[in-house]
Design a protein that fits this description.
Blueprint: H1 2-14, E1 25-30, E2 38-43, H2 45-54, H3 61-83, H4 104-120, E3 127-137, E4 141-150, E5 156-160, E6 171-174, H5 175-179
Antiparallel strand pairs: 1-2, 3-4, 4-5, 5-6
């Protein structure tokens, strides 16, 4: 028992992510606009198993993208209850409590964190996690998104959770389409 307590304390102090002897997954998450503040959240082994079961039945790259979209909502719901982002509204609405409200910078960073955990757990067979990207548009300004790459053909996809309320599936669309301003899932 003492060994587990020491391992947990070391994980907290070092900011590491683990699913070791404690069975606990640690995530460092953004909690506000611009990700100027972060909060660690923890997922127990039973939640990790729930995530793994979400990816059961993934038979090709297309179904894996559908599972990825769902998994981002799954993460947001569970993380939001721990870090206070459960009240996050899609986009940047003008009249909401700023506490727990995320902009596209924070959303894309959190989504990338979740994607990296999904990848680290061995749940991605047809995709890998790529670097976040930004688009600049004259009318709507700057917008960030997380990105995945299909392994077979190197096609890139935006994984954008900013458009929806906390806990809703992310939008996964071809990156080129996203760069052109499209918001719909294809």
């Amino acid at each position: 028992m003492r060994h587990i307590q020491i391992l947990l304390l070391a994980t907290l102090l070092l900011g590491c992510t683990t699913t070791g002897a404690t069975g606990l997954l640690t995530l460092n998450t953004c909690i506000n606009f611009g990700c100027s503040d972060k909060k660690k959240v923890y997922m127990p082994q039973n939640e990790i198993e729930s995530l793994k079961s979400l990816f059961a039945g993934t038979v090709n790259a297309e179904t894996e993208r559908e599972k990825i979209a769902q998994a981002i909502g799954w993460f947001e719901y569970r993380v939001g209850n721990q870090n206070g982002t459960w009240r996050d509204k899609g986009r940047n609405p003008g009249r909401v409590d700023p506490e727990g409200q995320l902009d596209c910078i924070a959303e894309s960073l959190n989504t990338t964190t979740y994607l990296k955990q999904i990848e680290r757990l061995g749940l991605l067979k047809w995709h890998s996690v790529d670097d976040r990207v930004v688009r600049h548009r004259m009318i709507f300004g700057t917008h960030w998104t997380a990105v995945i790459k299909e392994k077979e053909n190197s096609d890139l996809y935006a994984v954008d959770s900013w458009y929806e309320d906390n806990g809703t599936s992310a939008r996964v669309i071809p990156l080129e389409t996203w760069f052109n301003g499209a918001e719909r899932i294809l």
